[in-house]
Amino acid sequence: MSEGAPSIAADVLISTQGNLGRITLNRPKAINALTLGMVEAIAAALDGWRHDERIRAVILDGAGDRGFCAGGDVRQLYDHRPPQSDFAFRFWRREYLLDHAIATYAKPIVALMSGLVMGGGAGLGINASVRIVDASTRFAMPETGIGLVPDVGASWFLSRCPGETGVWLALTGEVIGAGEMLELGLADATVQRDQHSALVTDIASALDSHGTAAAAIASALRAHGRPAASRMTPLRTMIARCFCADRIEGILAALEIEASDWAATTAASIRSKSPQMQKVALRA
How far is 278 from 284, CA to CA, in rounded Å? Predict the structure, then answer.
């Protein structure tokens, strides 16, 4: 692949910039919702760069102003639903293999997660080795609201959030921003969106002068990183108190005892979702 020349595979733009591989989700009108073709194109690019000594790190981002990725293309899954085909099995199998490949990739993958980051989008971004968010970022795992369970590695990364905050996110599908993601360990740094191009350029430049790719990325982030406020701190005590039960019924009972507007809203959110998937999510 020639320097800087993009290769269009399905709805993904794949290119190189110096020692950087670049993958851009390119369905902005659909908030970059993942299709099977996109999953396969990303997997192929990562596989091709895995042993390419010229590529020392990978940038993963999304086109458009609305979001990094809103999740899997539910319409595509519906149109190819069983028993007509085994499409859903093939899609999820390949998507989960891709998420695992990202989580275990030997070279740093820097995810620039602007706007909506939900479901399958979180599988791509949260599993990356360097997770960058900004003021526009909105993260959620809303699966229990549509009869599914938080997947794409969520039982790993949500269970490692401090206290019971990961359980709260899994059961409520609550939307959080950049500051909360940083506090809960779901992101590593905040870089304002208008600085993303400069950050990528600086990473590419630093890769030429630093011993390791990790050091090059850390150097670029020091120049562009910014703090972000979080609203989680006052909520964490209530979340710990109410979400420590090992059954949904116990969590709802604790929310009743809490007797606050937050508790009432949270209980209503839990009750509005699939009861079976709530239990599966909690067990996971």
Answer: 10
C-alpha pair distances (Å), 125 with each of 112, 122, 202, 205, 268: 8, 5, 21, 23, 29
Q: What per-residue confidence (pLDDT) applies to 87?
A: 87
pLDDT at 5: 55
User: Which pLDDT score, from 0 to 100, does residue 2 have?
Assistant: 44
pLDDT of residue 227: 84
State the catalytic residues. Answer: 72, 120, 143, 151
Q: Which residues of the chain are under the pLDDT cut of 70?
A: 1-10
How far apart, in whole angstroms, are the C-alpha atoms of residue 169 and residue 246? Answer: 15
Check residue 85 and give its pLDDT.
80
Instruction: Retrieve residue 14's tokens.
Output: 């794949």
In the 3-class helix/strand/coil scheme, how is the chain assigned residue by residue? CCCCCCEEECCEEEEEECCEEEEEECCHHHCCCECHHHHHHHHHHHHHHCCCCCCCEEEEEECCCCEEECCECHHHHHHCCCCCCCHHHHHHHHHHHHHHHHHCCCCCEEEEECEEEECHHHHHHCCCCEEEECCCCEEECCHHHHCCCCCCCHHHHCCCCCCCHHHHHHHHCCCECHHHHHHCCCCCEECCHHHHHHHHHHHHHHCCCCCCHHHHHHHHHHHHCECCCCCCHHHHHHHHHHCCCCCHHHHHHHHHHHCCHHHHHHHHHHHCCCHHHHHHHHHC
Order of strands across the sheet that contains 67-69: 67-69, 116-118, 138-140
